[in-house]
């Protein structure tokens, strides 16, 4: 029995932040679901009106996430002004080569704002070689401390099915990274943080290139030994490249490097793995692009990454051979014997950044990834 003067109880749950996700493909929609399941009020921006209507009304995205029910606190529009209105955080999930064009439309809507802008993309701009956070800073003219990037072993369909995983949110500003990480977490998705934007972005970019190589040898019909060798040597190439460009080596041994590399190289859900497999089966680069219904960022990133590698004096033999296959200058069957170098001189296994014992480096990498899951939050290197 309720006392006469007692106030009626309300079961109101505090509403989470209003967030906008630009791009309603498989990853953008999945990340919108992550945010909504964590309590945020999510508005998706879709380029096509019919897709926006399906997400808003049917709570489905049948083209990109067939069979997945989307949360009630997730809506969509194809009007950019409407999508961004009142947003406290903006997440960007468009093909990397179209980012600059999309930002030009977004810039007047965010002028004078100090809200976080988060990149969900894993690519570099082909024309400039810039990372996505650099393109965002350049086009929006915003403080880099407002920019964050998300990366990790994040295959969209698995996460949409609420299979547990983790990601890293990186920003020059610890405060921005923390704000985004608190928003982008729920019962099946955990966000860690660091301040190594360069390493986090390049980890996501470079693993795509190694995944294409894995797909190629898989398409040719080579087995697990070949794949394991390419993954291990690929991690060395990734680390050498990223460190030469200003990253912390520990970042490449965490979720944004090793974790993402394992997931992308092993899964048939990976677009880059699929693209490589088609190349290995004898399809031309043009045929692969036509067959792929979604963007495989690794294909567009090969050339600009190699340009950056040459400028930094970093050797990337696996990525060089991927480019040769893409260009039709190498038979896919010949990629495996050239795992490290064409030079017959015996070489050490370690990376070029001071880790001489390759086996020890890999053990430390695996241990670091597992420690992140066990201990949570920030590791010794922040990841």
Secondary-structure blueprint:
Blueprint: E1 18-22, H1 26-37, E2 41-45, H2 49-58, E3 74-77, H3 80-84, E4 89-92, H4 99-110, E5 117-119, H5 132-140, E6 147-151, H6 156-160, E7 165-171, H7 174-183, E8 189-194, H8 197-220, H9 224-244, H10 249-252, H11 255-266, H12 271-280, H13 285-291, H14 297-312, H15 317-326, H16 358-375
Parallel strand pairs: 1-2, 1-4, 2-3, 4-5, 5-6, 7-8
Antiparallel strand pairs: 6-7
Helix pairs in contact: 4-5, 8-9, 8-11, 8-12, 8-14, 8-15, 9-11, 14-15
Describe this structure as you would to a colleague.
- By secondary structure, the chain is of the alpha/beta class.
- It has two domains: 18-198, Rossmann fold (3-Layer(aba) Sandwich); 199-375, N-(1-d-carboxylethyl)-l-norvaline Dehydrogenase, domain 2 (Orthogonal Bundle).
- It is 48% helix and 10% strand.
- The chain has helices at 26-37, 49-58, 80-84, 99-110, 132-140, 156-160, 174-183, 197-220, 224-244, 249-252, 255-266, 271-280, 285-291, 297-312, 317-326, 358-375; strands at residues 18-22, 41-45, 74-77, 89-92, 117-119, 147-151, 165-171, 189-194.
- The protein has an eight-stranded mixed beta sheet, with helices on both faces.
- Helix 2 (49-58) links the parallel strand 2 (41-45) and strand 3 (74-77).
- Helix 8 runs parallel beside helix 11, helix 8 (197-220) packs across helix 15 and helix 9 packs antiparallel against helix 11 (255-266).
- Residues 1-13, 354-361 and 379-383 have low confidence and may be disordered.
């Amino acid at each position: 029995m309720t006392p006469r003067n007692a106030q009626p109880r309300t079961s109101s749950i505090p509403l989470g932040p209003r967030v906008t996700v630009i791009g309603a493909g498989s990853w953008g929609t999945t990340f919108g679901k992550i945010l909504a399941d964590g309590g945020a009020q999510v508005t998706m921006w879709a380029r096509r009106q019919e897709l926006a209507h399906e997400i808003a009304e049917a709570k489905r995205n049948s083209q990109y996430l067939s069979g997945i029910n989307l949360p009630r606190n997730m809506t969509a529009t194809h009007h950019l002004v409407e999508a961004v209105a009142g947003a406290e955080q903006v997440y960007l999930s468009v093909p990397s080569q179209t980012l600059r064009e999309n930002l030009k439309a977004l810039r007047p809507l965010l002028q004078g704002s100090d809200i976080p802008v988060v990149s969900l993309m894993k690519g570099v701009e082909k024309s400039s070689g810039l990372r996505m956070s650099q393109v965002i800073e350049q086009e929006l003219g915003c403080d880099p401390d407002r920019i964050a990037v998300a990366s990790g072993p994040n295959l969209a369909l698995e996460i949409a099915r609420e299979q547990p995983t983790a990601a890293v949110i990186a920003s020059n500003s610890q405060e921005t990274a923390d704000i985004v990480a608190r928003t982008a977490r729920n019962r099946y998705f955990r966000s860690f943080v660091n301040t190594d934007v360069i390493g986090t972005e390049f980890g996501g970019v470079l693993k795509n290139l190694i995944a294409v190589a894995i797909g190629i040898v898989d398409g040719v019909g080579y087995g697990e030994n070949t794949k394991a060798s390419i993954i291990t040597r690929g991690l060395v190439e990734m680390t050498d490249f990223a460190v030469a460009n200003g990253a912390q080596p520990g970042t490449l041994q965490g979720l944004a490097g090793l974790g993402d590399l394992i997931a992308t190289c092993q899964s048939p859900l990976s677009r880059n793995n699929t693209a490589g497999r088609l190349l290995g089966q004898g399809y031309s680069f043009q045929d692969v692009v036509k067959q792929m219904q979604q963007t495989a960022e690794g294909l567009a990133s090969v050339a600009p990454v190699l340009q950056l590698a040459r400028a930094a004096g970093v050797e990337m033999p696996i990525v060089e051979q991927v480019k040769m296959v893409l260009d039709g200058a190498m038979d896919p069957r010949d990629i495996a014997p050239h795992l490290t170098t064409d030079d017959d001189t015996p070489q050490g296994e370690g990376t070029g950044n001071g880790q001489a014992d390759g086996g020890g480096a890999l053990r430390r990498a695996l241990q670091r990834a597992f420690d992140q899951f066990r201990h949570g939050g920030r590791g010794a290197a922040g990841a």
